[in-house]
Design goal:
Blueprint: E1 10-16, E2 32-33, E3 36-37, H1 38-46, E4 53-57, H2 61-65, E5 70-72, H3 82-92, E6 97-102, H4 110-118, E7 125-129, E8 132-141, H5 145-153, H6 159-164, E9 169-173
Parallel strand pairs: 1-4, 1-6, 4-5, 7-9
Antiparallel strand pairs: 2-3, 6-8, 7-8
Helix pairs in contact: 3-5
């Protein structure tokens, strides 16, 4: 059930639209980690932050519907990648900022999100681990949607490349920060 939005109005998208190739074709967000679907862990952290929780998914909509205010999907059937989910979410986001998180990172915590939001403003914010950008742990101003549409129509499919074109603010994180760990293969679930 939606709650009142925090003072800094925020939309959230949980990206769960991939093929799950490294997970043997399983829908990663619905794979259990510590006895719960990974999407449930993220939902628990972000639900208090927004009244606009979006899940980008291309299958299992009924299962994901229990965790979202709205569902979006890619506008093509070929699984074009996370930028497609971000694009779909920006098109429907109700607030000026969109927090982006991947469905296979169940260790994300409120501190990481608050640190990202502290840097949020007119330009995107991305986590950066040991000097490497983490584009799926980001805050994106909704006003960048026209830029994304233009880049998308020109063939851009790299989330990192598109975000870096907008001079993102970096949230430095430790190289081994477990909150940024993607549990995207069966051997990482243990």
């Amino acid at each position: 059930m939606p709650i009142a939005a925090p003072p800094q109005s925020l939309s959230v998208v949980l990206l769960a639209g991939g093929r799950g190739q490294r997970m043997g074709g399983l829908d990663k967000g619905l794979v259990h980690w510590r006895a719960r679907p990974m999407i449930a862990w993220l939902h628990e952290v972000v639900r208090p932050l927004t009244d606009d929780l979006i899940i980008s998914c291309n299958r299992n909509q009924q299962a994901y519907g229990a965790y979202a205010d709205r569902l979006v999907g890619d506008d093509s059937a070929d699984f074009p990648g996370p930028l497609a989910g971000i694009r779909a979410a920006l098109q429907v986001a109700r607030h000026p900022l969109l927090l982006v998180l991947p469905c296979d990172a169940p260790r994300v915590d409120r501190v990481l999100i608050e640190d990202l939001l502290t840097l949020a403003g007119d330009r995107p914010v991305m986590a950066q681990r040991a000097g490497y950008w983490e584009p799926l742990f980001a805050v994106i101003p909704r006003r960048l949607l026209p830029s994304l549409e233009q880049a998308w129509q020109a063939g851009e499919r790299s989330t990192q490349r598109w975000l870096r074109a907008h001079d993102p603010a970096a949230l430095p994180c430790e190289a081994d920060d477990p909150r940024l760990s993607n549990l995207n293969s069966a051997d990482l679930l243990g």
